[in-house]
Structures are given as C-alpha cells and as structure tokens.
Amino acid sequence: LAQLDSIREYLLEMRSRSEGESKSNRGGWHSEGNLFSAEDACLAPVREAVTTTIFAYIGEAFNYRGPIQLALTGWSVINLPGNYNVPHNHAANLLSGALYITVPTGMTGGAIVFQDPRLNLNAHETEGMRALAIRPPWMVTSITVSPKEGEILIFPSWLIHWVEPYQCEDPSAWRIVISFNTSITK
Predict the structure, then answer these.
(1) What is the pLDDT of residue 125?
(2) In whole angstroms, how far apart are CA 111 and each of 12, 34, 43, 80, 154?
(3) What pLDDT digit, counting tens, does each position of 32-57 carry?
(4) Which of 15, 109, 118, 132 has its CA 20 to 30 A from that of 5?
(5) 107, 175 in Cβ contact below 8 A?
C-alpha cells in the first residue's frame, strides 16, 4: 500500500488517545473495537486491500468463484522491542490475517509462528533414522513467518499461532500490524 506512512501515523494517533485492551498481547497496545466498522477514509485502502486479498484466497484455496458476502473485523497491535503475543487462535471465524504496516529496520525476532495441530508427529522416530539424520517433513511442527512491511498474510482462523518478541537497536522502534478476521455471511 502506498499509504503505509499515513496509516502508521493514524494508528499511532489512535494509540495516543486510547489505553487499548489486553488480548493475546503481552506488552504493546491492542486497539479497541473494529477498525473496519467506521467508514474512515484513512483505512479505506486497508479495507480494500484486505478484502481483495481475502477474495483471492477464497477463490484459490476453496476453488470458489461465485458471489460471496464477508463479515470483516480488524484491530491494530503496536509493539515495542520485547513485546509479544501468546499462543491463541481466532475461534468462530473462517480466516484470519495480518497486514504489516511497520517492521523495524534491523529487527530480529518478531515472527509469527504457526503450530501444527497434529500431535505426536515425531513418535515414529527411531535410532536408525537419527543415525542417518533422516527427518520426514512432517516432523517440523511449526512454521515461522517473518513479517515484511506492506505484506498481507492470511491463514485459517483455527490455527494456533503466536508472535515472538523482537529486538532491534532502536528501543523505540514500533512493529505495527493490522490484524483481521473474516467469516462468510448469507
């Protein structure tokens, strides 16, 4: 989005006026309410980009090309170095996602991690496999995705995930994301 700077300023201004709320975040700021409920001109490009991406995802992943109505809710999480989000999912939704507004330069950590819900994936491991260093791909029980500024990430809402704490040289460097949920309505 070409408007990332103005969106960042809008969200930081919103943060300065509101205490926010505590959800899965540990430290940082979580906005209140639904960012997509108001017809705010500043967030219109975000709403459009997220909706377009969700429609494309549904078309590709579900092989669906017909008319569809979506309910969309969004919020912002603004973190400083050391802040993070604990493991959670987004029950009662179809898809969830994140639009990365700001990713600090030189950031280490701060990735979103998705947990494979299947248990005991490594129960079949044997001495022979260890000796040969054979590891089937299903033994990787989590996927880590590093954020990229301007990128939209979409995933199934039931998937357990968390955000790692991050570090960077600037102790006041914000990591700003707009997260969202969607479900299909009639």
Answers:
(1) 79
(2) 21, 24, 24, 14, 14
(3) 999 998 777 889 999 999 999 999 99
(4) 109
(5) yes
* Number of alpha helices (DSSP H) and beta strands (DSSP E) in the chain: 3, 12
Which two tokens mark 88?
A: 């959670």
| Cβ-based burial of 104 (10 A; exposed 0-12, middle 13-18, buried ≥19) | buried
- What's the one-letter identity of residue 70? L
Q: Which helix (H) or strand (E) holds 176?
A: strand 175-185
The H or E element containing residue 12 is helix 4-17
Of the candidates 177, 171, 173, the one whose C-alpha atom is nearest the C-alpha of residue 153 is 177
Rounded Cα gap, residues 165 and 182, in angstroms: 26
Q: Please give the single-letter amino acid code of residue 138.
A: W
Q: How far is CA 72 from CA 41, 45, 162, 173, in A?
A: 17, 14, 21, 29
Tokens of 81: 């170095």
- The predicted-structure confidence for 139-175, as pLDDT tens digits, reads as follows 888 999 999 999 999 999 999 999 999 999 999 999 9
